[in-house]
Structure to design on (611 residues):
């Protein structure tokens, strides 16, 4: 049954379907646009798609998403950004501090910048004419550098505060921006990382599996067992906790407690004690604090200078001869910052080669002197040379900038970091060349404006369409999948069930240790003692393609990283994957002579030897 429009009293079918959120018919959606001051200029394509609209007030055509208009309607604000930024720029210029800008803009209507400078050679005028005002040729060049085409200048005078209408060359979206915002580029080219490379997010790790200190604070009397077994470390639900120090009971969100457990009663006492100590230090001279008195290197009498006060930073001399200038209280609490910096172990530094291997792989081999990815930290501000491995393009950029904003893998080819091709090359090998972008330009779970086409690596005649996310979650070729599990695979599963007592088939495994995909499907999984054993059956026909072998290799390495013992039953004549790990084993099997029971017995004996 089709979903009905969520507008009260409207019985029309909805233009899209949802599980829990409202959905509306086309007529109601167009009515929402008109409430926001817009008229649709193209058909509705979906709630998450950009739609070209025309402002009913100023006539500017720009793209907006439905959710954006709904959010603005809730506050009684019109959607059109041209009207909004024009009004904002006008208010800005009406302020008394910017009266000179209004005068200069009037002069620019009839005079060139050189003529104005000759008449008014003041520094403020020169600064405005060089940075605050954008002549058309300079504006077009600035837009060109950031991937835009100029459609219209929406405010007379063309200051950095005024809006322009531009079109992104990549996604063709019309958008209204202030000149000062152009340098951020279009959001279609932004490739933000999901977490800091040195401290990745925990993902959907269960609280019970996290070994978080918050588990010692869990109130087992007031919280039910189901909550403890199902809650993740990032859950925002509020639960009960007990302070292990003072037995104080309180409520707090799980996410806050796993980030840093804290008792509100203890925190209040500590805060009160620190406030009292802070007040005491206001009347305590440097001479009465041995640590400060021994390091005092100022000419002022330490008996009249207080630890806390309005005084400027003071000079201290540490035992290693450093002479930092800091506030006395800062030196008392933290010591010498130079000693802290030099005392940091080289092993604690996050080198580029270890932290961001994809970027490190593009390090120019000849033009960076003694610097290498092994002796430069991952967020260094040093500007170095890079060389693209796809087209040979060479450019200079700081190490830190490589991992910010657009995060280009190659700025010339417009390929991105953390792409599908880098993360999952076996799956990327099935990416069809008919797609408008390459596998180097989409992420493994990207929401694309088109449904990608795929070409089966096993049988190139199998061509189908599926979203990137569904493929990354394990969806395979639909034509191949129709065959299902072969009788040989079913025989191995039956033998595993008889030998190990319980053998699960086709379970989905997720683990934060996975690097290629978020989840993998394991053919046969059993438990032997404390070992989780994953048994994969690799049929010669389905696994002989190079792309499939690469997927098998990545899958095995991910399962090993997650703590599995991995056994691959490789059908003759498949070659070995060449994985060297004590918890990995390949067993040669034959489709014409399965010997399922004997093979499983061999697997059991080998796994038992690991115990």
């Amino acid at each position: 049954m089709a979903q009905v429009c969520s507008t009260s009293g409207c019985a029309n079918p909805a233009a899209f379907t949802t599980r829990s959120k409202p959905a509306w018919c086309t007529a109601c959606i167009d009515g929402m646009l008109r409430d926001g001051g817009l008229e649709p200029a193209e058909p509705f394509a979906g709630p998450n798609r950009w739609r070209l609209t025309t402002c009913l007030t100023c006539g500017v055509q720009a793209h907006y998403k439905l959710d954006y208009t709904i959010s603005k309607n809730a506050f009684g604000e019109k959607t059109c950004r041209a009207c909004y930024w024009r009004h904002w720029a006008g208010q800005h210029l009406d302020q008394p501090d910017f009266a000179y800008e209004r005068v200069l803009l009037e002069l620019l209507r009839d005079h060139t910048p050189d003529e104005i400078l000759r008449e008014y050679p003041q520094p403020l005028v020169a600064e405005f004419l060089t940075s605050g005002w954008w002549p058309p040729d300079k504006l077009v060049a600035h837009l060109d550098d950031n991937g835009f085409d100029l459609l219209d200048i929406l405010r007379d005078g063309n200051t950095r505060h005024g809006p322009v209408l531009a079109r992104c060359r990549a996604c063709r979206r019309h958008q209204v921006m202030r000149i000062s915002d152009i340098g951020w580029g279009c959001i279609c080219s932004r490739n933000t990382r999901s977490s800091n490379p040195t401290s990745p997010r925990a993902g959907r790790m269960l609280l019970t599996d996290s070994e978080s200190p918050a588990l010692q604070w869990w109130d087992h009397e007031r919280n039910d067992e189901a909550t403890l077994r199902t809650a993740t470390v990032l859950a925002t639900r509020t639960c009960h906790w007990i302070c292990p120090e003072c037995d104080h009971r309180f409520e707090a969100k799980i996410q806050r407690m796993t980030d840093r457990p804290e008792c509100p009663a203890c925190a209040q006492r500590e805060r009160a004690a620190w406030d009292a100590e802070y007040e005491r230090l206001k009347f305590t001279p440097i001479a009465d604090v041995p640590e400060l008195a021994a390091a005092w290197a100022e000419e002022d009498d330490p008996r009249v200078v207080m630890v806390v006060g309005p005084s400027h930073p003071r000079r201290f001399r540490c035992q290693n001869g450093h002479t930092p200038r800091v506030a006395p209280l800062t030196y008392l609490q933290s010591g010498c910052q130079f000693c802290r910096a030099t005392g940091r172990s080289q092993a604690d530094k996050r080198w580029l080669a270890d932290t961001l291997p994809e970027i490190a792989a593009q390090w120019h081999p000849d033009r960076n002197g003694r610097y290498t990815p092994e002796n430069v930290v991952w967020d260094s501000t040093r500007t170095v040379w890079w060389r693209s491995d796809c087209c040979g393009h060479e450019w200079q950029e700081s190490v830190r900038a490589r991992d910010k904003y657009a995060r280009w893998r190659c700025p010339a080819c417009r390929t991105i970091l953390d792409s599908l091709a880098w993360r999952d090359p076996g799956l990327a090998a099935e990416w069809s060349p008919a797609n408008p972008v390459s596998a180097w330009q989409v992420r493994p779970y990207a929401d694309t404006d088109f449904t990608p086409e795929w070409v089966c690596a096993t049988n190139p005649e199998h061509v189908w369409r599926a979203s990137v996310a569904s493929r990354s979650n394990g969806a395979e070729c639909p034509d191949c999948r129709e065959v299902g599990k072969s009788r040989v695979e079913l025989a191995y599963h039956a033998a595993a069930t008889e030998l190990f007592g319980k053998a699960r088939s086709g379970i989905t495994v997720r683990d934060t240790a996975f690097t290629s995909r978020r989840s993998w499907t394991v053919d046969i999984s059993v438990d032997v003692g404390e070992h989780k054993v994953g048994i994969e059956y690799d049929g010669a026909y389905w696994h002989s393609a190079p792309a499939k072998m690469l997927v098998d290799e990545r899958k095995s390495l991910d399962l090993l990283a997650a703590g599995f013992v991995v056994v691959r039953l490789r059908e003759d004549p498949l070659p070995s994957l060449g994985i060297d790990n004590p918890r990995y084993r390949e067993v040669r099997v034959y489709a014409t002579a399965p010997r399922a029971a004997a093979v499983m017995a061999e697997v059991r004996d080998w796994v038992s030897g690991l115990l």
